[in-house]
From TrEMBL:
<dbReference type="InterPro" id="IPR013325">
    <property type="entry name" value="RNA_pol_sigma_r2"/>
</dbReference>
<comment type="similarity">
    <text>Belongs to the sigma-70 factor family. ECF subfamily.</text>
</comment>
<keyword id="KW-0731">Sigma factor</keyword>
<dbReference type="Pfam" id="PF04542">
    <property type="entry name" value="Sigma70_r2"/>
</dbReference>
<protein>
    <submittedName>
        <fullName>Sigma-70 family RNA polymerase sigma factor</fullName>
    </submittedName>
</protein>
<dbReference type="InterPro" id="IPR032710">
    <property type="entry name" value="NTF2-like_dom_sf"/>
</dbReference>
<dbReference type="InterPro" id="IPR007627">
    <property type="entry name" value="RNA_pol_sigma70_r2"/>
</dbReference>
<dbReference type="InterPro" id="IPR052704">
    <property type="entry name" value="ECF_Sigma-70_Domain"/>
</dbReference>
<dbReference type="GO" id="GO:0003677">
    <property type="term" value="F:DNA binding"/>
</dbReference>
<keyword id="KW-0805">Transcription regulation</keyword>
<comment type="subunit">
    <text>Interacts transiently with the RNA polymerase catalytic core formed by RpoA, RpoB, RpoC and RpoZ (2 alpha, 1 beta, 1 beta' and 1 omega subunit) to form the RNA polymerase holoenzyme that can initiate transcription.</text>
</comment>
<dbReference type="GO" id="GO:0006352">
    <property type="term" value="P:DNA-templated transcription initiation"/>
</dbReference>
<feature type="domain" description="RNA polymerase sigma factor 70 region 4 type 2">
    <location>
        <begin position="111"/>
        <end position="161"/>
    </location>
</feature>
<dbReference type="InterPro" id="IPR013249">
    <property type="entry name" value="RNA_pol_sigma70_r4_t2"/>
</dbReference>
<dbReference type="Pfam" id="PF08281">
    <property type="entry name" value="Sigma70_r4_2"/>
</dbReference>
<dbReference type="InterPro" id="IPR014284">
    <property type="entry name" value="RNA_pol_sigma-70_dom"/>
</dbReference>
<dbReference type="InterPro" id="IPR013324">
    <property type="entry name" value="RNA_pol_sigma_r3/r4-like"/>
</dbReference>
Length: 304
């Protein structure tokens, strides 16, 4: 086996982790996959000059560093984005292609990804690499171009910011399952009264339409408005379309699928303390999965 072939085998083996790191930093799967592909070419070049003995260690630093550059450029574009910008939702497509796989800790739910958007690129990268992927501060310092002491300060600020803003989601236990099932049932049935009993009084609903017409361009605030918005969404489901429960970034959500199997939109919702605190709709076509995989264990078809 040639040296390049061995490099390719090792790189493919760690690719899901690399895509997970890049996605956690940049917030979109397509950009994350581009980052990982770019770094593969750099790996081959670097190995040609001096053999790379630790492929995973080299790749993690290279991918994280490149992802930071992409995020900084993306932040400028997102300032001109029409309406709210939301991360790309990760749903289970069950693809056999390693390029389509992502290794991501279940704790990095969709609501947390939204909070990470409010950090500076250096804070976000430090938080992701240290809190999620366990990278030590000296290695993170190489990525963000700061001293280890400065990186520790970034970590302290990022942790405080995330702790203050990210919902404390409990994804275990019968109460969580009850809220998820009840919310999905109320949405599918267009039951406003039931929805109002499940929504936090200060619930926030955000829609990312990528500039499409007919999509709310400002957050919807409060249980009554959010409940009516959700009922309106269900009423607009066309003949042949159906609502399908699924997991979004490891948490509960659903998609509305067209008759041809394509995705019309994906919704993530965040239960906290027995009530739904956040609802996020992604309608922007370039952020929607081409196909949705099998139903998660224990979830029944909506038309069964």
């Amino acid at each position: 086996m040639s040296r390049v072939a061995r490099l390719a085998a090792e790189y493919t083996g760690v690719r899901p982790r690399l895509v997970g790191i890049a996605y956690s930093i940049v917030g979109t799967l397509a950009e994350a996959q581009d980052v990982v592909s770019d770094c593969w070419l750099k790996l081959v070049e670097a190995d040609g000059r001096d053999p790379v003995l630790d492929v995973e260690g080299w790749a993690v630093v290279a991918v994280a560093r490149r992802a930071v550059d992409v995020l900084r450029s993306a932040r400028v574009r997102r300032e001109r984005y029409v309406g709210p910008w939301l991360p790309e939702p990760l749903v289970d497509t069950r693809s056999p292609d390693p390029a389509e796989r992502v290794t991501l800790d279940d704790s990095v739910g969709f609501a947390l990804m939204v909070v990470l958007e409010t950090l500076t690129p250096a804070e976000r990268t430090t938080w992701v690499l240290h809190e999620v992927f366990g990278m030590p501060f000296p290695e993170i310092a190489e990525v963000v171009g700061r001293s280890p002491a400065a990186v520790r300060q970034l970590a302290v600020r990022a942790r405080a910011h995330v702790t203050a803003r990210a919902p404390r989601v409990d994804v275990a236990g019968p109460e969580h399952r009850r809220v998820v099932d009840a919310f999905l049932g109320a949405v599918r049935g267009g039951d406003l009264a039931a929805l109002l009993g499940l929504l936090d009084p200060d619930v926030v609903l955000t829609s990312d339409g990528g500039g499409l017409l007919g999509v709310a361009r400002r957050p919807v605030l409060g249980a009554d408005r959010v409940g009516r918005f959700l009922v309106g969404v269900v009423r607009k489901i066309a003949a042949g379309e159906h609502l399908r429960p699924l997991t979004v970034n490891g948490g509960p959500g659903f998609a509305v699928l067209r008759a041809d199997g394509s995705t019309r939109y994906v919704c993530s919702f965040t239960p906290v303390g027995g009530l739904v605190r956040r609802v996020d709709f992604v309608v922007a076509p370039d952020k929607l999965p081409r196909a949705v995989g099998p139903y998660p264990p224990g979830v029944t078809r909506p038309d069964s």
